[in-house]
């Protein structure tokens, strides 16, 4: 907080639904600050003059939309379902799973001028890494700009995965890549891959 304020940002501590959240304002729309490790970081607010963020017991939300923040607070500092990849939710980090869950807005509406044929067609991404009985399950969900774009992204990613699996045909990584499954549902692309415990051990031994 203090680093943001030293660089000219106005940080306000607010309350809603009995919970605390923060509003960051800066007229110019961009700012630079040095983090605790001495690294210089550039923050670009795009065309948005305000950002809101709040820390819940299991989720952290960063959003440019006050209504989205209020929804988060009203629900006890928790977003579920497709809210975690809503374009208004710039970033959601969740820690109530055994491993990790998160989501982020990648759309151009927030200044995401990505040099990537995949990300240019994707508005939001959600990722879950969860423990399964015999390993872990990695699930990714990409919300594209259209059903056609979702299929195009699938073709690109599926092709890259297939090429990498062929290149690693004799190794554990190749086995894992051949387990990747793709499913389209309109403008949403779901990608899932189960990884067995012995595959995790083999990868670790080869590091």
Descriptors for this entry?
12 strands; single chain; 207 residues; 5 helices
**Gyration radius, rounded:** 20 Å
Helical proportion? 10-25%
Number of domains: 2
Number of strands: 12
Number of helices: 5
Q: Biggest sheet, strands in spatial order?
A: 1-2-5-6-7-8-9-10-12-11
Structural class: alpha+beta
The helix/strand order is HEEEEEEHEEEEHHEEH
Task: Give average pLDDT, whole number.
Answer: 75
Task: Write structural notes for this entry.
The chain is an alpha+beta fold and 207 residues long. The chain has two domains: 1-93, no CATH class; 97-207, no CATH class. It is built from five helices and twelve strands. It has helices spanning 2-6, 66-74, 147-167, 172-177, 197-205, and strands at 10-16, 19-25, 30-34, 40-44, 50-55, 59-63, 89-94, 100-105, 122-132, 135-144, 181-185, 188-196. The strands form two sheets. A ten-stranded antiparallel sheet has the order 1-2-5-6-7-8-9-10-12-11. A hairpin with a 2-residue loop joins strand 11 (181-185) and strand 12 (188-196). The longest helix is centred in the last third of the chain and has 21 residues, at 147-167. The protein is globular, with a radius of gyration of 20 Å.
Task: Kindly summarize this structure in a few lines.
The chain has five helices and twelve strands.
Topology:
Elements: H1 2-6, E1 10-16, E2 19-25, E3 30-34, E4 40-44, E5 50-55, E6 59-63, H2 66-74, E7 89-94, E8 100-105, E9 122-132, E10 135-144, H3 147-167, H4 172-177, E11 181-185, E12 188-196, H5 197-205
Antiparallel strand pairs: 1-2, 2-5, 3-4, 5-6, 6-7, 7-8, 8-9, 9-10, 10-12, 11-12
């Amino acid at each position: 907080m203090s680093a943001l304020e030293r660089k000219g940002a106005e940080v306000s501590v607010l309350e809603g639904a009995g919970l605390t959240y923060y509003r960051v304002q800066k007229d110019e729309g961009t700012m630079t600050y040095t983090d605790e490790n001495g690294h210089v970081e550039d923050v670009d607010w795009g065309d948005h003059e305000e950002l809101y963020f709040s820390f819940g017991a299991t989720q952290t939300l960063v959003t440019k939309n006050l209504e989205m923040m209020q929804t988060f607070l009203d629900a006890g500092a928790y977003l579920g379902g497709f809210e975690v990849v809503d374009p208004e939710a710039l970033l959601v980090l969740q820690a109530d799973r055994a491993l990790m869950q998160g989501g982020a807005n990648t759309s151009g509406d927030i200044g995401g001028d990505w040099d990537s044929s995949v990300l240019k067609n994707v508005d939001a991404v959600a990722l879950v890494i969860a423990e399964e009985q015999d390993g872990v399950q990695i699930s990714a969900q990409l919300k594209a700009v259209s059903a056609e774009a979702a299929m195009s992204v699938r073709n690109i990613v599926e092709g890259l995965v297939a090429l990498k699996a062929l290149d690693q045909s004799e190794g554990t990584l190749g086995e894992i890549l051949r387990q990747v499954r793709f499913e389209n549902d309109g403008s949403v692309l779901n990608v899932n891959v189960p990884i067995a415990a012995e595959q995790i051990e083999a990868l670790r031994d080869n590091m």
